[in-house]
Amino acid sequence: MRKTNSFRVKRVFACLLVLGCVLGLSLNGLAYTPVTLKNHLAKPGKFPGQYELKEFEKITGVHLKFKENPRIKELYAKVPGHPHDLPSVDKRLPEEPLVVVPVEEVGKYGGILRGVSHATEAGTSDLLSIRHVNLVRLDPNKKTIKPFVAKGWKWNKDYTEITFYLRKGHKWSDGKPFTAYDIEFWYNDLILNKKVYPKTPTIWTVAGQPLKVKAINDTTVKFILPKPKPNFLLYLATTYAQPFQPKHYLSRFLPKYNPKADAEAKKLGYKDWYDRLSKYYRSSDWKDVPTPLLNGAGHTIVPTLESYLVVEDTAKGRKLVPNPYFFCVDTAGNQLPYIDGIQESYVPDKEVRNLMITNGQVDYKAQALFLTDYPLYKENEKKGHYRVVLALSPGDLVFYAFNTTHKDPKKRKLFNNVKFREAMSLAMNRKEVNELIYLGQGKPTQIAGVNCDVVDFAKKWANYKIAYDPAKAKKILDSLGLKDVNGDGFRELPDGSKLTIYLTYSNQGAPVKMHQLVKSYWEAVGIKTVLKEVTSDEYRALANKNELDLTTWKNDKGSPVAVASAPAVCLLPIFGDYFNPGTGFEWATYLQTNGQQGIKPPQDVFTLQKLVKKFASYPMGSKEYDQIGAQIAAIHARNLWKIGMVGKVPVPVIFSARLRNVPPVTISDYSYYWAYSLNPIQWYFK
Amino acid sequence: MMLRFILQRFIGMVITLFIVSILVFIIMQLPPGDFADRYAFRKFSGGSVNITQQDIENIRKQLGLDKPQWQLYLDWIGGIVTRLDFGTSFAYQTPVIRIIKKHLGYTLILIFGSLLLVYLIAIPLGMLAALKRGSFFDYFISLTGYAGLAIPPFLFALILLYFLSKYTDFSIGGFFSDQFRDAPWTWAKLLDLGKHLIVPLIVLTWPNIALQAQTIRATMSDEINRPYVTAAIARGVPWWKLWLKYPLRLAINPVIGTIGFDVNRIFSDLPIVAIVLNLPELGQFLINAYLDLDMYLAGAILLILCFIIVFMNFVSDVLLACLDPRIKLE
């Protein structure tokens, strides 16, 4: 048959079509540039900066091939007590790994992150936060809570039950399966265990009562809260604790699972089964407690879900290597983390730490850095090959709180007068304090129970009575009957007796210079002030025994996360906690004993009680939360129980110049758990 | 007679140590709070975590600190005497013995190294200063000596550290540079240790050298003007034999008698210098243990250090008796 033109055309067309399809498909695979936050190559998923695997594949159309750190086998061989045969990366990752979007670009494997802290359990939180994991985490925008170990959650209507969905195939660092039963085990067999914790830790209770934790199946677990606590999720996203422990590893130490546990422990020389268990789980969810390597229990570490595993734990420092069973990958399929290890050295002296930083021997440091050292850090940036940035420390706003339930009835009457507190607030030159102590970088701010510089619903009170107006202060003091009758330059009480205010402080609570300045301001309006520096222990003991004229410290309980996690602490007497007390000690006694003891607080406190109860049942950032919060802030501001000084205090943060993929740092403090909300698992060294 | 002397001294040593142990314990209980308080404050204050008294009680019960103090002391002393069990460090959660074993060696190197260096340098310096009395050399020695005495040791250490870091590429602090820390012992590692020991030894020995050099200078000056020296020179005794055999032997008396004081001074300075220079030795652990109220660790280290002092006093007594037959042992 003669081949007509049309037939030839059809054949060529068909060939071209097939060729085109083949090319198209292969080029699609070749041309895939990994998504980063910088290049916006794909639209975001349900949560910013990350995707679930299925979500990622649907949005980008790419089927990820997983790759691993080429040195992972060599590094994992150093981990003591873990089996050393490693299956391929496909089998190590969960069936549904988390796909993390790199900030700038896909990183390279390699490098060691060097850090310094004070000692085994002191000053270590910023380094701990790099390898930390929890069910959820915060986005660097410090507002959005995202899934992490859990792939999702669901609240019930009134915030008394939350269900978490875990990842199928997620494994502990020793390759054994991680399931919801590990979470149940942690709460029911450790937290509630009376030998391990004689009293259930406050942080794992709501309104004084314990939670109930129930595993529904391998990947579903439910937390049942005795009272509504919508900010329980925020707490999980910002706490140092991890709500899971390896049941397969620890249960053999508990008599409940191993009837011979006590006998075995005694045979090994321990006092009882708890003595042995405490070497592996030390009645604390902290991850910097000595591992068995340091406390002598053996050459092994407890399995973990974190991104790094301890391989060396001595009195001089810790060394860690990446966890080959870590559950995250980047948008090119590389298993995270990128960095080959963490090396932590203990250096107790601040000046030596500063020397190390300026010498370029530290790759990341955030905790225990002070604004006064910022010029030193800035000067040496080039020499030390690092960069120093300033970020906000929301809890650094210092307060002065007069003792409204003072033992001396005359002082009690005076301190209880809100006009007196207003006068003392107006007498202070906050601008000068800002210049001299905070290098002019802060912003004078009032406290309305919460820190008005950072808590949204209290921002309108930030400038309340913070003007520097000694003339007005003097007029108010005159009107209170505080006149200088004997001509010594200082005012006496209305009945003529001497008035001296004793300002007792610890140098850990606020800069010492500030107290000296405050003394000068108050004496300038005629109130004699005597300063006394004591140790933190003494300050605490004196304050809690109601023996101080006024308390002064940083108002760390007034920062956003603290207010949301435990509103009663900063909003009701004693407006603080055991370590950082405020005022109104006898009011607190009255409330706790239902009126049997103590002093009856003013009506405002009872109003606050009702408001705080409602406030605690709404999640942070919701409309009701802000509305009720505004009412609460108004009451606090009017009463001025705590007088605020300077807020928006920046603190330095150090990063090595070679460290990449670090998102912009807006807040750096403990309440946001340092680097945990900075996506450290995708940092890398260029 | 020597034996009785030694026995007497030994019994005295034991009694002293016993009294010291009680004092140590009492001092530690004086400030308010205990390790549980300090620990809880360190870990939880400053954050958004809500800690109550109950949580601190948990820690206290777990550590066994809720028992009455006299019982804690008896448990501790009983453990040492019967089982050489110095207790457990709360901070490191490990037997105190382990910590001490690991770091005692470095402490001893620092203490005895300093001691040796002090005498090796101070004695010749003092002698020369006495011989060349009134010269520029003499005044120079005195001046630099007093400078070292006047500067507080931690400041001195920081200054040296600063200059070292500015003008060399030395790693800051510690006994070893990064690469040698975990490496097996080689000559290179020994050299590295030596390099890192320079600053601590300078800081620790300088004040003592100053003191002892002045002492030697004074006593030597006394001896040099004696008739027997003039007679010996006239007889033509070679100068080195002369100075070393006679005047020096007498002049050294006060120095040997005060070995105990030197040791005392060295390890009064040692903990702070060790903290500043980040030397992981017992002095640094002692200060940290005190700050934390980690009482078993602090108590044990203090006992050991006191033992060293008492022992060195004993040695100085014996040496003195050996060197100077005028001194009777009664």
Overview of this protein structure:
The complex is a heterodimer of chains A (686) and B (330). Chain A is 31% helix and 17% strand. With 686 residues, chain A is an alpha+beta fold. The mean pLDDT of chain A is 92. A two-stranded antiparallel ribbon of chain B has the order 1-2. The model of chain B has no long low-confidence stretch (mean pLDDT 81). The chains are: A alpha+beta (686), B mainly alpha (330). At the A-B interface, helix 12, helix 20 and helix 21 of A face helix 2, helix 3, strand 2, helix 5 and helix 7 of B.
Q: Can you tag this structure with a few keywords?
A:
heterodimer; A: 686 residues; alpha+beta; D-Maltodextrin-Binding Protein, domain 2; Dipeptide-binding Protein, domain 1; Dipeptide-binding Protein, domain 3; 3 domains; four-stranded antiparallel β-sheet; 17% strand; globular; B: 330 residues; mainly alpha; MetI-like fold; 2 strands
Short characterization:
The complex is a heterodimer of chains A (686) and B (330). Chain A has 686 residues and is an alpha+beta fold.
Number of strands of chain B: 2
Numbering strands along the chain, what is their spatial order in the largest sheet of chain B?
A: 1-2
Radius of gyration of chain B in whole Å, from Cα? 24 Å
Q: Please tell me what the overall shape of chain A is.
A: globular
Q: Might you state the CATH topology name of the largest domain in chain A? A: Dipeptide-binding Protein, domain 3
CATH top-level class of the domain at 96-323 in chain B: Mainly Alpha
Give the biggest sheet of chain A.
4 strands, mixed
Unreliable residue stretches of chain A: none
Q: What's the overall average pLDDT of chain A, rounded? A: 92
Helices and strands in order, then pairings?
The complex is a heterodimer of chains A (686) and B (330).
Chain A: H1 5-30, E1 50-52, H2 53-60, H3 72-76, H4 89-92, E2 98-100, E3 112-117, H5 125-131, E4 136-138, E5 145-147, E6 152-155, E7 161-165, H6 180-191, E8 205-206, E9 209-210, E10 212-217, E11 220-224, H7 232-238, H8 247-250, H9 261-267, H10 273-277, H11 292-295, E12 308-313, E13 317-322, E14 328-330, E15 341-346, H12 350-358, E16 364-365, H13 374-379, H14 381-384, E17 386-392, E18 398-402, H15 409-416, H16 418-426, H17 430-437, E19 443-444, E20 447-448, E21 450-451, H18 470-479, E22 500-505, H19 512-524, E23 528-533, H20 536-544, E24 550-554, H21 560-565, H22 567-571, H23 585-592, H24 603-615, H25 623-639, E25 643-644, E26 646-647, E27 650-656, E28 659-660, E29 684-685
Parallel strand pairs in A: 2-14, 3-15, 22-23
Antiparallel strand pairs in A: 1-2, 4-5, 6-7, 7-11, 8-9, 10-11, 12-13, 13-15, 16-27, 17-27, 18-24, 18-25, 19-26, 20-21, 28-29
Helix pairs in contact in A: 16-18, 24-25
Chain B: H1 2-29, H2 35-44, H3 53-63, H4 69-83, E1 88-89, E2 94-95, H5 96-131, H6 136-150, H7 153-167, H8 187-224, H9 227-235, H10 239-245, H11 247-257, H12 259-277, H13 282-292, H14 295-323
Antiparallel strand pairs in B: 1-2
Helix pairs in contact in B: 1-14, 2-3, 5-6, 5-8, 5-12, 6-8, 7-8, 7-12, 8-11, 8-12, 11-14, 12-13, 12-14, 13-14
